[in-house]
Design a protein that fits this description.
heterodimer; A: about 525 residues; alpha+beta; Beta Polymerase, domain 2; Cytochrome-c3 Hydrogenase, chain B; three-stranded antiparallel β-sheet; about 15% strand; B: about 180 residues; Rossmann fold; five-stranded parallel β-sheet; about 35% helix
Chain lengths: ~525, ~180
Amino acid sequence: MGEQSKQFIHGLETSVKAGSIEGSHEQGLCLIIRVLPRYLIPVCRACLSKGAVFDSAFVSSAGQEKGEFDVYYLFQAASIGRMVAVASRGHAFDALSETVNAALWDERKIQDLTGLRLAGIPDSRPLLFHPESGLPPEHPIGGMPFKRPRSAAYPMAGTGEEGEFEVAVGPVHAGIIEPGHFRFHVVGERINKMETRMFYLHRGIEKAAEGRQAASILPLIEQISGDEAVANSVAYCQAVEQCLGMEVPKRAEHIRAMLMELERIYSHLADLGGTATDVGFTLPASRFAVLREDAMRLNASISKSRFLHGQCIVGGVASDLDAQKRAGISGAMARMLHSLELLERMTFTSSTFLDRVFQAGTVSKGIAKDLAIVGPPARACGMHTDLRRLLPYSAYSQVAVNESIEKEGGDVLARFRVKLAEINESARLVALLASRLPPGEIRGRMAHQKKPQSDVGIGWAEAPRGSCTVLVEIAPSGAVKRLACRTASFRNWRALERAVEGNIVPDFPLINKSFNLSYAGTDM
Amino acid sequence: MLLENLRFIFGRGFADKVSEKSGDPAVREVAQLLRKRSGSPFARSIHVRMVDAGSPNDVELEEGLMMSPRVDAERFGVHFVASPRHADVLLVSGPVARNMHIALVKTYEAMAEPRAVVAAGDGACNGWEGKGNYALAEGTGRVEDVLHVDVKVPGSPPTPYQLLAGILKAGEALAQKSREHRK
């Protein structure tokens, strides 16, 4: 084990209790720490006090004994360059969200999946299941029978101000958009409080993966969120490769990174166009839509899929990027950047545009830290969250990524600027990676794939919306025992709730668009 | 350069040519359907309400790009509306999640007759493989098991032109239904 990891663990033990850590080992870029259930929360809090950032909390069934579970709390420890996983096995656990607000949705999800009751959780309403739509016969993880709730009601309280009334929106919205329910508590037009109710699109993806061969479920991973398919696939593949001890050829890593940057470009183009649409500035909106469609056609020309589906596979990539395809990409990038410059000038010189986006939907740095948000919304209020730089995976360890940060703002304008800068940076990275593309194979050898080298693997990637993390457990047969995934959208929804406070209802679509969270990616 | 800039900002001619000689089979199909439909009461106006009942958002993005200046479905009279009360066609992507079942049925019931349902994407057409999934309606999430489906548009996801062809086919089904309605 590396010196930094040893010191980190020593630091944890001194601040909790000597002997509180049962065991620990390094695995790829992860540091896995096993603790007894009673030390779980103190060790997690010690991690946070050492500057690590809460990433996610996962649960899996511990196997033979019913009612026994493994829980994993993941932290991004950029100071030691590792993802720290605090793992524990037991029948009952305390809730981290009692003191760490960011973990609330993760722990509510754990409760719904397993039927566990985490002691001290501040909100015990169901998250994944809507009782009015009917409940499954048993909890999906561990098979404990469901305790029927006494009523199907999902109480959403306002602030209690005099004259406050409720506006209920969704799940089916007016535009071409995914389903989710928003409950506004308003006085006049001012929003006092907004609460979301999600998980209309809960499709049980994590459960559906169980029992299937690890290399065969990538089409399922692409169903998490269609426009983040590459990033989610890369995170999943890295988790599986870590589990199986597979080497990925350098060329494949570079191609994966190029595909991820192309995905970021087409995704951000949609966001920028959507922002222009939602302020009613139709000319740049329609021009962004042209760029977007052209980006999709570029994707189709290099991968047969407009969403780059099917490209990332366990051990490498499905098809090579030959010189002709690379030339096509670089030509398209040049045309796109030229148009983008014109659009940038058009939007930033328009007072109608700036009036709407400036100081709309502001997220303060305090809220951002409290909720541990990720991606462009976090970078728009000055937080460094880019995992390409903090925990460089795959080819990003070989190229320097300039993180796009807006030191102040945190409003719709700042998010717009971050995304604009990220498109330019992605185009630069695509060109850089293409010029450095190493020769060789695009698929790793499968010879030692028979038996997993460890029972759990963790992978991550910086998706267009922020970091996503995947944890996978693989049985000796090569079948998936447990898949767990945390997307950027899942982490950021609660920040949207806070961002709209004090704004007016008609600005909600604009603020929502500037976050552009994936409903499907949240609900899974 | 100046001319190019002006053309980009104010120019016309972004829309694709839709012809029966196109290299893309979906574009050819759209061209054929457009030629055939001239006598139908829905020839120049099909109003569509979409419901995402469980797709991973790619079908919705393609629906959005169907309205973008390149494909520009509005020039063929295809128009997305905010309320099911105004809609002729319900465009459903899937698989139908358990939690979306009620909302989907309510949206359908709010539509006036005649109405047609298009199942868009592999998830909506075939559901998910494998044994019953606890989170999907009827275990597989096929739209057919929840509503009567008039047109299926397979694809993962279907392209904007494939979606457009599906909506135009639903227009034919609507014309048929409205003739029966009048009898």
